[in-house]
Design brief:
The protein is α/β, with parallel strands linked by helices. The protein is built from 13 helices and 9 strands.
């Protein structure tokens, strides 16, 4: 068996790349799908639970899957700089892949509402970081305006190449299981990831790789649940900083994923998120961030 070469090289036939695309990779992807039998017993769930451990990507999140494609395409298009709004994970990923590609990276973040560890990552990779008075949605609005006026590539999930890269996680889930899962529980912030997974599952189905599609079960934090409540949240609040977003860019596509699959978008409280955060670690030895624990919090809520 050959060594892993990153998601673009491994899944090239499913991605918008060709021989002209310079592949910018940190060998992201190929993360383990861990069966969580201890967790299943602890919460009283009779089926099998699997955790897709995306924290083992190069900068510690699933964002690396999308960023390898977005940055590779930016280089292909001759861009010299990239920009993003971020509460943490996107900034670290964008800065790392920009550094790998020799591009300048700029990050706008909401002052006082960002994961410090991720911010330090972005800075050490060489990104120029600017804090604004406002929330993530305000930062993304500014970033998109800059992208429209100047020759800089926006690498938030408004960039379709981000979704293309992130869908590869769905392929890996199916490759590991030998079939599509019955249900997929997933956190929902800006809603790019639920959009990407659903796209990936449907493409694998069309390619004959799987015979069934999962029900997509998206979970927002109670204080940042615009999709559930049906209106934008002006000042979203939650301990789960990665999903502290009041007006998701992929709102419509998240709803489509839930509705088409027979799933749902729902919400969990910060207390439920923190309980899940602790029980994942104490039963399985898997440490995740609070936003990731929202998906398990959703499962616990339905089981109980």
């Amino acid at each position: 068996m050959g060594s892993w070469e990153g998601v673009i090289n491994h899944y090239a036939r499913f991605l918008p790349v060709d021989e002209k695309t310079p592949v910018i990779t940190l060998l992201e992807g190929n993360t383990p799908l861990i069966e969580a039998s201890n967790l299943a017993r602890a919460i009283g769930f009779g089926g099998k639970v699997f955790l897709k451990y995306e924290g083992l990507n190069p900068t510690g999140s699933f964002k690396d899957r999308g960023m390898t494609v977005a940055i590779s395409k930016a280089v292909e298009m001759g861009k010299e700089a990239v920009i993003c709004a971020s509460t943490g994970n996107t900034s670290a990923s964008a800065a790392a892949y920009a550094a790998r590609a020799g591009l300048r990276a700029y990050v706008l973040l909401p002052k006082g509402a960002v994961a410090i560890g991720k911010l330090s990552q972005a800075m050490i990779y060489g990104a120029k970081v600017l804090a604004i008075r406002g929330n993530f949605d305000d930062a993304l609005h500014i970033v998109r305006k800059i992208g429209e006026k100047y020759p800089v590539e926006v690498v938030n999930s408004v960039n379709p190449y981000r979704i293309e890269g992130q869908k590869t996680a769905a392929y890996e889930v199916c490759d590991a299981l030998g079939e599509g899962p019955d249900y997929h529980f997933i956190p929902v912030g800006n809603a790019g990831n639920i959009t990407a997974y659903w796209k990936g599952y449907k493409e694998y189905m069309r390619a004959g790789k799987i015979k069934r599609l999962p029900k997509m079960m998206g979970w927002q934090a109670e204080g940042a649940a615009p999709i559930v409540k049906g209106y934008p949240i002006k000042n979203p609040q939650t301990v789960a900083t990665a999903i502290r977003i009041g007006n998701p860019y992929s709102w419509k596509k998240a709803l489509e994923a839930a509705e088409e699959s027979g799933g749902r978008i729902d919400m969990v409280s910060d207390g439920e998120i923190l309980y899940a955060y602790r029980i994942i670690a104490s039963t399985e030895g898997v440490f995740c961030e609070p936003a990731s624990a929202a998906s398990v919090a959703g499962l616990i809520k339905l089981v109980r």
